[in-house]
Design a protein that fits this description.
The chain is mainly α. The chain contains three helices and no strands. This is Large ribosomal subunit protein uL29.
Length: 78
Amino acid sequence: MAKSLTAGELRVEDQDTLVQKLKEAKEELFNLRFQSATGQLESHGRLRAVRREIARIYTVMRERELGIITVEKESSDG
């Protein structure tokens, strides 16, 4: 995950994609923490960015659960 995802980008994704992105972000966070513990981490700012990305994904998932937002399906007219 090279770039940070915005909440708007996440809101248009389906549930399976969100779960996959959450899994990838958690794996990246684990690897970054491991690098930090062993003194190999070069970009400490990335830790913060990944944690925020995980929080955004959880927020969008919770909004859907509460019905605050809904997934807008693209209609195929034709």
